[in-house]
Amino acid sequence: MSAVSSHVVVGPAPAAAGQPLLQIRGVETFYGKIQALKGVDMDVHEGEIVTLIGANGAGKSTLMMTICGNPRARAGQILFRGEDIAQMPTHAIMTREIAQSPEGRRIFGRMTVLENLQMGTTLVGQEHFDEDLRRVFDLFPRLKERTSQRGGTLSGGEQQMLAIARALMGRPKLLLLDEPSLGLAPIIVKQIFDVIRELNRTEGLTVFLVEQNAFHALRLAHRGYVMVNGRITMTGTGRELLSREEVRSAYLEGGHH
Ligand SMILES: Nc1ncnc2c1ncn2[C@@H]1O[C@H](COP(=O)(O)OP(=O)(O)OP(=O)(O)O)[C@@H](O)[C@H]1O
């Protein structure tokens, strides 16, 4: 555990001038008759890392998937650069500089690392392939040593790195990450969160991170939102939320720090 406690809180995000990159307004999502999201509002500004935390079943993954158009929002708006993408098909949303690393790191198990990374370029083409490959190998040297290894034979941490690397190959402006720490050893979680911080600091990549690991997520993020039963109940800077008693007792018990 000591390895992870060396995380440093990132500095403030660049001034949140103008329109947010992503604006979520009154979003409601249903699975049949079950209402999973009950009017969610959220902003993500360019250059920010924003995290959404909450218990199992709160609706975090549903919000991330709704941003990607599957399931579709039944009400509300999802504005990306001011354009409402809420009713667009997923493939159209994914051509708008949004990339997702889904929960459960759905990489292609029978394809090699290199082939998985090629899949990430489907929507942007091969023009910058070599340059982008060098970039993800710099970020994740472990993948470079395993280019011809099948995805399914990688460790959990390597699969997570591959899922993020594949998303980055699409040159996103907004990176959506669903539970990148799930099931991983603390030292690997630290490596992955360090890379996210680095991408944000050096390239200004905007990141929306869904996490159950509230301690790490709130230390990494500029701002956070807490979701309970499909509603946002609290928001603040990562630091503010970490110091709130309600957050500490609900999400930080159990020796994360
Ligand atoms: N495909 C589905 N069909 C029906 N109900 C679903 C489906 N997916 C999720 N739900 C329900 O929607 C609610 C929100 O689930 P969701 O997976 O978004 O929560 P979560 O906060 O991401 O939880 P976790 O951290 O466990 O992934 C839960 O009540 C869940 O049971």
Number of separate domains? 2
Q: What is the 3D shape?
A: globular
Q: Would you list the SSEs in sequence order as H and E? A: EEEHEEHEHHHHEHEHEEHH
Which strand order spans the largest sheet, edge to edge or round the barrel? 6-7-8-3-9-10
Distance between the termini: 7 Å
Strand runs, count? 10
Q: Given the helix and strand composition, which structural class is it?
A: alpha/beta
Percentage of residues in strands: 15-25%
The main β sheet shows up as:
6 strands, mixed
> What is the subunit arrangement here?
single chain
Fold-level CATH name of the largest domain: Rossmann fold
* Percentage of residues assigned to helices: 25-40%
CATH top level assignment of the largest domain? Alpha Beta
Number of helices: 10
Overall average residue pLDDT: 89
CATH superfamily of the largest domain: P-loop containing nucleotide triphosphate hydrolases
Examine the secondary-structure arrangement and name the CATH architecture of the largest domain.
3-Layer(aba) Sandwich
Radius of gyration: 17 Å
